[in-house]
Amino acid sequence: MLYVFALLLILEIFHLYHDGGWRELIYYYRYFLNPKKLGEFIASFGPLAAFIFVIIQILQVAAAPIPGEMTGFVGGFLFGKVWGAILSTIGLTLGSMLAFWIARKFGMRFVEKIVKKEYIEKFNFFVTHKGLYITFVMFLLPGFPKDALCYFLGLTRLRFLDFILMNLFGRFPGTMILTMQGSAARTEHWWELFWLLIITVVMIVTLYFSRNYVIEFVRKITRSFIRSVIRRKKKKRSKAKSSIGKNIR
Which of 119, 136, 175, 223 is deepest in the core (most CB within 10 A)? Predict the structure, then answer.
């Protein structure tokens, strides 16, 4: 399914280029930069609004430079806290998987056309000096260019499953806060919106200054998880050997 979606996306870009559709693309890009217009556009699809929102979330990660913070806010405004967070998480995860796959499939030359060179150099510096665990902190930070990070991680040796888990759990706190902000704006709970903005600022500052502790914490959890998996495999092997020995007797 992911391969089909990626192929369709590439074909659509090729079609726009040869048919002179860039003017329309720029028009819609400006249109989607307005949260109110974006919300109206999604709501106009009626029963399909949730599906369209997920597609937009996928595209804003993998293809279109639409601010993710804005789409998360719109999701909360249209669908509420619970469904807004669920739909955003589905769209962001699928979009991140697509970006990761594209980078792994087409390599550095293709990624350099999508991601700014300065971003690639910065990501490379952080990963080289701090290890891949630093990327979890990057996913946690609100406002960080996570979409570009997904492309960069596709160029590394990071396993696909590890990337999905890191992306899912790293993005979720920020996604939840943005969704709650959108929901608060819709219900006109301005004090709630104010405190959510304060929490966002505190979260950014705290994560920045405690990033080394967070990295070490993630390392410990990962190592303990790997050890537990190895122990389970050893137990299964020993049980299998003992059962084989009994059958032989």
Answer: 175
